[in-house]
Amino acid sequence: xxxxxxxxxxxxxxxxxxxxxxxxxxxxxxxxxxxxxxxxxxxxxxxxxxxxxxxxxxxxxxxxxxxxxxxxxxxxxxxxxxxxxxxxxxxxxxxxxxxxxxxxxxxxxxxxxxxxxxxxxxxxxxxxxxxxxxxxxxxxxxxxxxxxxxxxxxxxxxxxxxxxxxxxxxxxxxxxxxxxxxxxxxxxxxxxxxxxxxxxxxxxxxxxxxxxxxxxxxxxxxxxxxxxxxxxxxxxxxxxxxxxxxxxxxxxxxxxxxxxxxxxxxxxxxxxxxxxxxxxxxxxxxxxxxxxxxxxxxxxxxxxxxxxxxxxxxxxxxxxxxxx
Length: 324
Ligand code: PBG
Prior knowledge:
Strand order of the largest sheet: 1-4-5-6-7-8-9-10
Number of domains: 1
Bound molecules: ligand PBG
CATH superfamily: Aldolase class I
Mean pLDDT: 97
CATH topology: TIM Barrel
Structural class: alpha/beta
CATH class: Alpha Beta
Radius of gyration: 20 Å
């Protein structure tokens, strides 16, 4: 038997005030970024059935959602555009009047500098085949041809007012290529939030509905294999060398180990993206009465902070911020 008094960690759990006093991690509204979808050619918001509570916005409803997010203290909004017409090269992505660019201008006009306005830099929302890049004659995603498109998109998005771009296509060299294009066009102040470790995940399912994706097949030749952890550190080193200002791990919950490794390794802000399927799981279980929705949401958000995230992209951003 030890001669020391018995350790009793439960002493610090006795009351809500005591637990609040010793709480190590906190989620603040400013940690949260709201991903939002805007669709061209609709008159009313269209609910995303696999993401109860999430809609494809009209231009007007997006402005309203951005203002509400800002009012709740959320720090950023990440925009995804869904064009009325898609084609093989994703023409809408580089059209200055494409829906994403129009929405960027709308949101900047609505919220000014109250909210950091960000945009997804990827082709899958605008291509008819649904891939994140251009396809070669054999139907494979052509890395270097895709980089040229990303460079054009970056400049068009920056010109529309995006303050942060999120290259999410997992092409090799995308961060450096986009950085050079932005700088050459004079957009040196536009930041890059690199999707550094992005895994080929089943949990993107509901997102496909949210962007009316017609993807056949999978993204296994460009997104990371869930079996690999160290590879994330290789992607991280490349993104930092290429000029990433912030880095992201995605999805969130199934990759908390990767998030922690990345957070431990860098001195730039680290984001976690709580993706569509993570949202859908909690909403579906809550709808069935199987879990306590609000507690589950709070617990997932805290798990990202515990693993070392500075920022969290979550479809619950506005709601969660209001409760914090
Ligand atoms: C690519 C992109 C995707 C998501 C964000 N950016 C889809 C994919 O990689 O398949 C998924 C987000 C989510 O599921 O919530 N443009």
